[in-house]
Amino acid sequence: MHVKAEVFPCPGCGSAMRYAPGTENLHCDYCGSDQPIDVPPLTPEVKRELASCLVQAQSCHPREIGKVLDCPGCGADVSFEPLTIGEPCPYCRTPLLSEPGNPLPPSAVLPFVIDHKAAQKIFRKWIGNLWFAPGALSRLVDTEKALEGLYLPFWIFDAETRSYYEGERGDAYYVTVERIRTINGREVPVQEQERRIRWTPVSGATSRSFRDLPIAATDALPSGLLSGLQPWASGRMRSFDLRWLSGFGSYEYSRPLEVGYQEARSIMESVIDNDVLRSIGGDEQRVYGIDTRYDEERFAVPLFPIWRSTFRYGGREYTIAINAVSGQITGERPYSYWKIFFLIVTILMILGTAAWLYQHYGGY
Ligand SMILES: [Zn+2]
Ligand SMILES: [Zn+2]
């Protein structure tokens, strides 16, 4: 499907402007001029009622339609994978954008705060902390393409919960008991302290508010990696506008709402389980049943900013991600087997030397 490419030309020189992280502006790299991004303030209505949307969840499923855009920078036909909103032109790097196509458009945007330079610094520091990291990795950080700025969709959920529970509270106490022990080959009676639990039946209620519980709405990055980037400063979200996305890769949700909600529910349940244990108190707890009411359930599907690096090492692919608001970094760590090998050899040599010294000088 051919669609119109949205670009934001500079009023001064006509080149395509990009969103400048940490600001409220589009910036022109050529003439240096800035253009404010004026969006209406975010209203509470960006959060939709969950129940009604879950009923017709089928109609909200992602629409995987590929698009072809004419790049106004170089004239090339640029194809977008399904569920892509924006990407730089692969030939001339002009920031290309297209209108979202999913039934639920992005609710809001959390704009980038950390720019490319700052992200490189975070990445370099992280690698520096990896004593076993291969040297090739340190050199990779300095290349321009090492980090890619992406806006990824998340489902965020709100809920007011009230849970009624039944169980037993266990309080520990100690009793002195006499035992027969064998000491130096002789059987002797000894006094010992023994831990016992006194169980009391309990029932009660706890409540908890969940706000903006984030669940990855995309498979573009492993979900374990994305959950490691929490918390998200969702209070800083702004109204959705393509201008925030200019110059970054940006994607729509590919995981259905009900899948995201299922995941959110199991997280909420485990938080509630812990609340119940704490509410029962005592030294040990038995839980017979928890009955939870979920009220005022709402959701939204905002875009959150991430710096990503994907690199190959030793025939394997690794991905790291940085929360582009907080600077939190997560990822798998490759190890240099040579560095580990030499460390082990060094330790063995030190141990060997110590043993030799002890034998020759310490043993008299
Ligand atoms: Zn300009
Ligand atoms: Zn181009």
Structure description:
It is a single chain. By secondary structure, this protein is α+β, with helices and mostly antiparallel strands. It folds into three domains: 2-122 and 150-163 and 204-307, no CATH class; 166-203, no CATH class; 336-364. The protein is 23% helix and 39% strand. The chain contains six helices and 18 strands. It has helices spanning 50-55, 116-129, 135-141, 223-227, 257-280, 337-362, and strands spanning 2-3, 18-19, 25-27, 34-36, 48-49, 67-70, 77-80, 84-88, 95-97, 108-109, 148-183, 186-216, 238-239, 249-251, 284-300, 303-313, 316-323, 329-331. Strands 5, 8, 9, 11, 12, 14, 15, 16, 17 and 18 form a ten-stranded mixed beta sheet that branches. Strands 1-6-7 form a three-stranded mixed beta sheet, with no helix packed on it. Strands 2-3-4 form a three-stranded antiparallel beta sheet, with no helix packed on it. Strand 11 and strand 12 (186-216) form a beta hairpin. It is flat and about 95 Å long. The N and C termini lie far apart (88 Å). The model has no long low-confidence stretch (mean pLDDT 91). Residues 10, 12-13, 15, 28, 30-31, 33 line the site of one zinc ion.
Topology:
Blueprint: E1 2-3, E2 18-19, E3 25-27, E4 34-36, E5 48-49, H1 50-55, E6 67-70, E7 77-80, E8 84-88, E9 95-97, E10 108-109, H2 116-129, H3 135-141, E11 148-183, E12 186-216, H4 223-227, E13 238-239, E14 249-251, H5 257-280, E15 284-300, E16 303-313, E17 316-323, E18 329-331, H6 337-362
Parallel strand pairs: 1-6, 11-14
Antiparallel strand pairs: 2-3, 3-4, 5-15, 6-7, 8-9, 8-14, 10-13, 11-12, 11-15, 11-16, 16-17, 17-18
Bound molecules: zinc ion (2 copies).
